[in-house]
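Reading group handout, session on sequence-to-structure problems. Before we discuss, look at one worked example. The prompt was deliberately terse, the way you'd type it at a terminal:

> structure Thaumatin-like protein

The input record follows.
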Amino acid sequence: MAKWHFLLLMVFISFSGTEAAVFTLQNQCRITIWPGTLSGKGPLLLGGGTKLRPGLSITIDVPHQWSGRFWARTGCRFDSSGKGKCATGDCGGLTHCAGAGGVPPVTLAEFTLDNQNFYDVSLVDGYNIPISIYPYGGSGDCKKVECFSNLNPRCPKDLRVITNGRIVACKSACTAYNTPEYCCTGAYGNPQTCKPTGFSQIFKAACPTYYSYAYDDATSTFTCSNANYIIRFC
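And the output record:
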């Protein structure tokens, strides 16, 4: 019996800390989107991207100690070989991004999973559509991150991305102007010198829980332990 107890203990140890979290991607938009994924640590999910029609959802098992991001590609057209282009969030012109990130401007849902999970919705790379994060089944603070405002109509003229006469995305000031002040680089590369700008404050006022600039940690980074997550587009 002692031998079996030892073996059971070893099985428990080998699997403890490796449980998967369940991520559910929901498309609440009126249009078809192509969610993209990029991993910083751990496996590439969904081959880097997939198609999601309005009202549908897809569930993914995400391993412990994974980090990465999700975003929505919009206005995509792909041929039978999976090659094409998206109006926003394009990732190398492929249906499955295969390790390529989304071209800014794009709204990002970012995660780092460990004993404590960290998550946020970031506008540091700009904005295309709203994203909300709803943790469930976990412990700790576990706050939801949501914003239903369409920021595109509020986008300053210099930051607008226009396709077929319609504003489809809003650049970050860093992408538009590429200066140290807006990109938090050089002399502005620390929290003491890089402060909110008039552009980031427009977005922060509309979506208070979103990351609006590089050092917006205090009001925009959230934690939860052993949770599952709903990522809702629109």
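Points for discussion. First: Confidence is low (pLDDT under 50) at residues 1-17. Second: The helical segments are 2-15, 173-177, 180-183, 198-206.
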